[in-house]
């Protein structure tokens, strides 16, 4: 069930970057059993890491605190609709509910554009200037996958 206090905390995380300039104006919190278990804000600039988005930082924080890679039964509150990378991380973390404030259009209006990534994923953009994906040496790399498939002690996540 939605709780505005959690969105206020996500917004507070985003607001911090207005003073620190660690990254863009994005914040997020992960909630489990009505308690914040992870929080984060965009830290792309301070960490020189394009993956340090608010949602990723909040997921990392929650996983560390809960000592798990599986955030089933958690909810994410974020100040903005998640980008494609963050959406993927949310799904990989098994978070099933996300509440967001600003829209992707709102983010685009202040200079953060994700549309070219969505177009690439949807196959609407094959421009190599976005990404040139080249299959290579599968005969070499498949051997590791085959060995993993045979392992008795593997963990699928």
TrEMBL record:
GO biological process: purine nucleoside catabolic process
Gene Ontology molecular function: any one: guanine deaminase activity
Entry annotated with the keyword Transferase: no
Parts forming coiled coils: none
CDD domains membership: nucleoside_deaminase
UniProt keyword Chloroplast, yes or no: no
Pfam families with a match to the protein in the record: dCMP_cyt_deam_1
SUPFAM superfamilies named among the record's database cross-references: Cytidine deaminase-like
Boundaries of every CMP/dCMP-type deaminase domain copy: 1-123
Organism superkingdom: Bacteria
Entry keyword set: Hydrolase, Metal-binding, Zinc
Assigned EC number: 3.5.4.3
Family per similarity comment: Belongs to the cytidine and deoxycytidylate deaminase family.
Name the UniProt record assigns to this protein: Guanine deaminase
Organism, as annotated: Megamonas hypermegale
């Amino acid at each position: 069930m939605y709780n505005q206090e959690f969105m206020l905390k996500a917004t507070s995380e985003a607001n911090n970057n207005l003073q620190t300039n660690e990254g863009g104006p994005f914040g997020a919190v992960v909630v489990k059993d009505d308690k914040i278990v992870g929080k984060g804000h965009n830290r792309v600039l301070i960490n020189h890491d394009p993956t340090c988005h608010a949602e990723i930082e909040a997921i990392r924080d929650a996983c560390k605190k809960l000592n798990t890679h599986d955030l089933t039964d958690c909810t994410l509150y974020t100040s903005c609709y998640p980008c494609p990378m963050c959406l993927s991380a949310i799904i990989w973390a098994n978070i099933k509910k996300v509440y967001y404030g600003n829209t992707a259009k709102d983010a685009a209006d202040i200079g953060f554009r994700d549309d070219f990534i969505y177009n690439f994923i949807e196959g609407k953009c094959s421009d190599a200037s976005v990404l040139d994906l080249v299959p290579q040496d599968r005969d070499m790399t498949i051997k590791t996958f085959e060995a993993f498939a045979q392992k008795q002690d593997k963990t699928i996540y």
